[in-house]
Amino acid sequence: MRVLFVSAEMPFPPHKGQRMRNWAILRALAAEGHEVTLIAFAEAEELMADQSTLRKLCPVVDLVPSPSNNHRGFLRYLARLRSLGSRLPHGPWRFRSPALVACVRRHMERQAFDVVIWDEVYNLENLQEPLPVPVLLNHHDVMQVVWRRYLEVEPNPIKRAYAWTEYCKLLRWEGQACSRVAGVLACSEVDREVLKQICPQVPVAVVPNVVDTSSYVPVSKDDGSTILFVGGMDWYPNQDAVAFFGKNIFPLIRELAPAARFVVAGRGPSPEFRAGFAGIPGIEFTGRVQDIRSVIASAAVCVVPVRIGSGVRWKILEAAAMEALRAWTLPTARKSCSPIVPRSSPRALSACCAMNRSARRLAEQRGCVWSSSIVSRFCVAPFGKPCRCTHEKLFRHEWRHRLAYRREA
Fold it and tell me: Residues 269, 284: one domain?
C-alpha cells in the first residue's frame, strides 16, 4: 500500500515515547513492503539535520516547522488564556498549523494514497477537509483519562479549576474528533476499551508499543544501590511521578538502605524543579542521556511511579527488556501488565525497592517482577501482526465507508 504518515513529531531519533512508537510503526510498515511518505512537525534544528536514516524507511520526507515554537515561555500561558474562551481544549489550538494543512493537501494532489495515518489526537485539528482515502488515528494517550487523573492528584485549587475546564471540553471534543476518522490505532487493550466507550461507532485496533529486544542486552549484575526513573522532565506527568516518589517513598527507602540513590535520567529538569529536592539526600538528575541502556544496566531497580497518563509506558518496556524492572508502583495507572503487582502504600513500596537482599527477596515473593511472557508480548517481532490485521480490514473495505468529512468549527 501507499501510506501517508502525518506525524506530530520527528520519529527519529527515537529518544522519547511518541517518537519510539512512530519509529516502530514506520519500521513495521517498511518491513511489510508498504511505501510510506512522511510528513512531520520538526523543531528548528531538526529542519536542517541529516535525514538519511529516516529516508531508508520513508523515501519521501517532508518537514513542517513545529507549532510548539509559538507556545513557549510566556506565550504558552497567553495561549492557554486564549483557549479558555473557546469550545476547543487547549491542545487543538497548540497543534493548529496552516503549513501542515497545506503540506497534506499538496501531497494528496500529487500522489494517490491508499491510507493516511494521522498521528496524535490533538493534531486532528489540522485535518480540515475531506480526504478520498481512509484516515487512521494513531492514538498515544486518551487525553480525557490523562486530565481526569491529573484532577485526582492536583491539590492547587486554581490549577484544578483550569484542569476541570479542560476535562469538560475533552469529554465532548475527543469523542467528536475520533468520530471523524475511519479507525483508531490504540496502544493497549485498556485504551481500546476506553476509546470504544468514547466513540463506539469507530473501529479500534490495538497496535501495541514495542521495543526491539535485540538491542537491549539483559543484565544480571547492577551497582546494588541505584533506583532509576527514566523520562523527560519537561512533561508534567513525569515531574509528578518524580516528586511523588522522591518526597514520599525514597526517604523511607533510605531508612532501609542508607546507601540508596534515586537517579532521574531524562531531558529538561528545570533548576526550580531540582531545587525542590535540595533537602533530600541521594537524589540525582542526569539530564539528557545519549544511550539510556547503559544507565538501565547499572540500576538495581527501575521504578515507574506515574500517576497521570494512559497508554503503556516505554519506561517499563525498556527496563523489562534488560530484566532490570523490579517494582511497578502505581495502582491508578491501570495498564495491561497484570504480572506486576501494584502497591499503593509508600511504606510497602519502599520495602519492595530497598536495595538490601532481604527486600529484593521480599519484592520477588510479592510478585513485583516482570515476567518474560510480558516481554515477548511487547517486542518488535510480533508487532507486524496487528498492522497486517488493520491493513486487511482496509483491503476488505470494512473501514472504507468511514471517511474524515467533518471538522468541528
Answer: yes
Cα 72 from Cα 78, distance rounded (Å): 10
Are 156 and 260 in the same domain?
no
3-state SS class at 183: strand
**Distance (Å, rounded) from C-alpha 139 to C-alpha 186?**
5
The answer as to whether 408 is a domain residue is: no
Number of domains in the chain: 2
Q: Is the peptide bond before 65 cis (omega within 30 degrees of 0)?
A: no
Structural domain that includes position 222? 213-377
In this prediction the pTM is 0.79
Could you tell me if residue 30 is inside a domain? yes
Question: Which amino acid is located at 129 in the chain?
Answer: E
Strands across the sheet containing 261-265 = 283-287, 261-265, 226-230, 301-302
Say whether both 273 and 130 belong to one domain.
Answer: no
User: Are 206 and 245 found together in one domain?
Assistant: no
Digits of tens for pLDDT over the chain (409 positions)? 899 999 999 999 888 888 989 998 999 899 889 999 999 999 989 999 999 999 999 999 999 999 876 556 666 667 677 777 788 899 998 999 999 999 999 999 999 999 999 999 999 999 988 899 999 999 998 999 999 999 998 999 999 999 999 999 999 999 999 999 999 999 888 899 999 999 999 999 988 887 777 777 766 666 778 888 988 898 888 999 999 999 988 998 888 888 889 999 988 899 999 999 999 999 999 988 888 888 888 888 888 888 887 766 677 777 666 665 444 444 333 333 333 334 445 554 554 554 433 444 444 444 443 334 434 444 444 445 555 555 555 444 444 444 443 333 3
Residues 322 and 363 in one domain: yes
Supply angle C-alpha 383, 387, 388, rounded to 5. 110
With beta carbons less than 8 A apart as the criterion, state whether 397 and 183 touch: no
Give the number of residues written for the chain.
409
Angle between helices 236-248 and 143-153 (to 10 degrees): 30
- The answer on 221 and 282 residing in a single domain is yes
Same domain, yes or no: 128 and 237: no
Instruction: Decide if 403 is inside a domain.
Output: no
Largest distance between two CA atoms of the chain: 65
Look up the CATH number of the domain holding residue 273: 3.40.50.2000
Whether residue 283 is found in the same domain as residue 199: no
Q: Phi/psi at 48 (nearest 5 deg)?
A: -105, 0
